[in-house]
Design brief:
homodimer, 515 residues, six-stranded mixed β-sheet, 19 helices, elongated
């Protein structure tokens, strides 16, 4: 238990400080404070001593140096359980400080506002973190409030303990304080890393603010929460318009669905339906509703309970079609008012509007005590990148379908095979340990449900065919053109098999593994 | 260009400082320094002023307050392009400081040594980060070296520019400095989070040190690097004994292989072969070599080019078997000398010895501008957790196989079905958008290669059967007992189907999705 006698207050965000001042006044706590905060406190009608008066040293350099003084930090850092510490501060006429209420220059706000370089630098707080860290280190004696979100708990502590705080509370606040300072410097460090275009720094810091605790994780026996990274860079952001809370798996599927439909040629209207983190249907069309209906038709059984993403606005007609099937989540960059009304009839359906932006950042895979940081796979294959390796050339229509199938294939777990026709997936072979297995899966589905369409269809493979066997399965099923990276030692055998069957094949020289 | 006249040096790690002192001496730079560093510099034969002499304020509180003084921070923070700043420091007899060489108390070292609480707290540096941050903010005028790793570059700068540094260098060092302070506080914050058992903090910081840049990422057109998290908690750590550098995908597969074999009952010898992040074979046995041979037999075609992990020592006999197949990586907790010799004949084969520890931490999935943090899936299903829901009870042997299949199934991408017999996988259906699809995959493989064994086999499903159709595929193929979480609205229909076929089925009440 530690009685609060002397408080130091220095605030950038003055929210709710009056509530604290009332409590401090009630327990006759002396207050010292810096320039702007000092004036604010006095204006609110409370007594307060200015820091420069206490230290005998003026605020200088436009406020850059105010609190960096031994009379402040001696008061924060003295271990009052040690006689020589107590003697030392007494000798130098230093008062122990029991309570520190400090928050920092709004670097985060300036970052989100895309402020200029000079303004960003000026908003790097120096004195604030120093006080926070001194007080947190000496939590045995000092109570520290690094954010207004802790004020209510502090007031309860003070009232419960008649003007004192418990060691548990002070220790907890010390922990919260180091989270604040680590987070603050992570923003500065990442901002500077971007300026230096340093994508693989010596020390990489990933920091996030708790957005919400989720009902559970990937499975009901796992707890989970979602965190938001504070950044001025574009990324996946959405507004939830209606429906139940998003689950852990909803977030994951929604992100993957969004990534897929925004990775396809933006001139076309693209729709993808995702189930268990893999697409079960994807399509392009000039017409919104047709685009959706084609994606659904790809695999209506798997689509049940899936996640639908489009890269275009949802109108009334499309919404009326969508509500005929049970989905977990629907995402679009825009949903018009009439469509919103139609969705509102399905109370549980989660409907999200997202910001339409390019996602060309890095990706991170965390594995226990280490993580892999890599460039996102931003490969886009265009007509001019294709190298025909067979005697037969693909037709213009086939080329369009090859490019479509190839882009979808990027978003299917490896090994991946995608069969497509009329800008619509007919069969998707996902997540197999052998390429032959994925070829079998894709052809089986396409042959069963699209026995006519498969005969003029194309196929994409995320990596090369190590042997002709996988390709031969595709040929046997009726596929007429194939897109793949190439690069196998047996490329010639694979090309020979294609020539023998008189189909065309193009190489992209770009592998698209996704694990 | 900025001429260095006054330097401030305060070091915990004094590595290589003599090199710097020689250069500073050459360009007649004045040095001020703190207690221990001051003595070190003087002992090396260089001139130096003690900080307490300069500030007129003694070091106090066992060194907790040394540099937190306006004569230091005024000298670090003055913007010399502004007349009123220059005037202000002149009025207060403050010298501008042009160079700061500071590194911090070894909190990281103490963390790794699992030091006691008091010692950890005492090793939180306060003055150091304050100086680093002041100098970094004012990089326009101040050169800052936060670590010996930058000394060589600094010496080159000084020699190239005749005692001065460039703005580019100072800006780069400011960035490196904020990376250091962010990283430092991330360690403190995460250590304190663990003490408070706060697994979902308001602000979550994930920080890593660059271990190495990798040849490329998941695909050759993506750059990649691996980072190590500094922590005193157990986790996946290994020593590479031989072979090529690990690739991005090797790391990922190795981690998953390790996770699988260490998630199975430790009394048995477990072996798993992983391909494209999914197991293609897994087995348990009392004999090391048999365990491996069974895992290989599960799917020798997919095993080619895969990653093998075992949870036991590799001896000569086993190594001789392993080198008969081409693998990318082999992992074991221990590899004996004779086995090492055998592996050494395959120069490219990556052989890793890992620390045998439980992995019961949290898992993180980063999605662009947000991340999901959740408990790892540490579910272990034991005999006593099983609830038989059919008329028929599984036999003791079936129960053992059900538990084995269920644990393997946890590590297969959803939807997942694993068929097993004799503690060996016969068929694995992975990554399908429908459960029926996974049932078909698993039964197809098992029926083709294990037509006899499948008739007395068991199957595990990672989630419930929404309809009886998936189960009926398993029954038709000959499976005699099934393990699944249960929980479908149609559970009774599924149970009826099992009863009708006179097979047994048990519920675990634990879903094991893996996406």
């Amino acid at each position: 238990m530690k009685k609060i006698k002397n408080a130091l207050i220095s605030l950038s965000d003055k929210t709710d400080i009056e509530k604290i001042l009332n409590v401090l006044n009630q327990y006759s706590v002396n207050i010292i404070s810096t320039g702007g905060t000092y004036k604010h406190i006095v204006n609110l009608g409370f007594q307060c001593e200015e820091i420069s008066n206490y230290t005998g040293f003026p605020e200088m350099l436009d406020g850059r140096v105010k609190t960096l003084h031994p009379k402040i930090h001696g008061g924060l850092l003295a271990d009052l359980d040690k006689n020589h510490h107590t003697k030392s501060i007494t000798d130098h006429n230093i008062q122990p400080i029991d309570l520190v209420i400090v928050n920092l220059y709004p670097f985060e706000k300036k970052l989100l506002e895309n402020s200029g370089f000079e303004e960003m630098i000026e908003n790097i707080d120096i004195g604030g973190p120093s006080m926070l860290r001194s007080a947190a280190k000496n939590f045995k004696h000092v109570t520290i409030l690094p954010s207004p979100k802790f004020y209510q708990k502090f007031i309860e502590e003070m009232n419960q303990n008649k003007g004192a705080t418990t060691i548990e509370f002070r220790k907890k606040m010390a922990y919260e304080t180091f989270s604040e300072t680590a987070f603050y410097d992570s923003l500065i460090s990442n901002w500077m890393a971007d300026l230096h275009e340093d994508r693989f720094p010596h020390k990489k810091i990933i920091s996030g603010k708790l957005k919400e605790k989720l009902r559970y994780g990937e499975n009901p026996h796992q707890q989970s929460a979602i965190y938001e990274v504070v950044t001025n860079k574009p990324g996946f952001k959405f507004r939830q318009l209606q429906g139940k809370e998003l689950s852990h798996n909803n977030y994951l599927d929604a992100f993957n669905a969004y990534s897929l439909v925004n990775d396809i040629d933006k001139k076309s209207k693209t729709c993808a339906i995702i189930k268990h983190n893999n697409p079960c249907g994807c399509s392009e069309d000039q017409d919104e509703t047709k685009s959706y209906l084609k994606a659904l038709k790809s695999d209506p059984i798997s689509a049940f309970g899936g996640i639908v993403a489009v890269n275009y606005s949802i109108n009334e007609k499309l919404a009326s079609e969508m509500v005929k099937t049970f989905y977990e989540v629907i995402l679009a960059p825009k949903i018009d008012d009439k469509a919103k009304q139609i969705f509102s009839s399905k109370k549980n359906l989660r409907v999200l509007e997202y910001d339409f932006i390019t996602n060309n950042d890095s990706s991170i895979t965390v594995m226990n005590n280490s993580f892999l940081l890599q460039d996102s796979n931003c490969s886009v294959t265009k007509k001019e990148d294709l190298k025909t390796v067979t005697k037969k050339q693909p037709t213009e229509d086939e080329i369009n379908n090859l490019i479509f199938a190839n882009q979808v294939c990027k978003h299917v777990k490896s090994n991946a095979i995608v069969i497509a026709n009329h800008q619509m997936t007919l069969g998707i072979g996902a997540g197999q340990t052998s390429r032959v297995g994925s070829c079998e899966l894709a052809t089986k589905h396409a042959s069963k449900y699209f026995s006519k369409e498969i005969l003029t269809s194309v196929a994409a493979s995320d990596a090369f065919f190590p042997f002709p066997d996988g390709l031969e399965i595709l040929i046997k099923a009726g596929i007429k053109s194939v897109i793949q990276p190439g690069g196998s030692v047996k490329d010639q055998e694979v090309i020979d098999a294609a020539n023998k069957a008189n189909i065309s094949m193009v190489f992209t020289n770009l592998r698209n593994f996704k694990h």
